[in-house]
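HUMAN: Mind sharing a backbone?

ASSISTANT:
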Amino acid sequence: MFAVDRLNVYYGESHVIRSATFALAKGETLAFMGRNGMGKTTLLKALIGIIPVKSGSISLSNASLTGLKSYERVARGLAYVPQERLIFSQLTVEENILTGMENSSDKQVPGYIYSFFPVLRDMKHRRGGNLSGGQQQQLAIARALVAEPKVLILDEPTEGLQPSIIKEIARTLNQIKAERKLSIIVSEQVLSFAVEIADRFVIIEKGQFVYEGVRANVDKAKIHSYLTI
């Protein structure tokens, strides 16, 4: 459903992503893992169009996304939650969510959003800047979700969050995938979180894929070794 073929990304003269190739099925979650600086965020930014690619292709439902602007990729079915979350601190929770509905004729927050994130319903009139880190992460996911994506891309969604909140977000993402029938791509360093949500795992080391596994026989020790070197 979502396919990336021989993607190469550069920062200046530095070759950061090297011939990345993978495919994602409908309803599947793929976790990219690796230490800081190995290329996870660069890859995700290239998928959504924030960073240009040097060569290779990106397609969704057999339609090419290569070369499209970020907002055009969103309109075609991608959604992106950045590592920094980037919510609007002066807007209310409800106003933040509505910013994700620019392409929708309906200007009311869908009911399913508050069923996934009941805390946001309770705080819908509170400014985004007054939320906790975990609540801001839920808000960022909710804002991406209202675009009704086919593929939801999450960059380090657990960063800075306490373990109980990480578990809650894992449960919610699994519920979202099951009920909304979408696919998820996530970059992550917390192995327990990745194992909870991912169907497949890819380790990135210096811009290259060096290990791939599936949930049924994932080698946790192998993945851990790449995260701690």
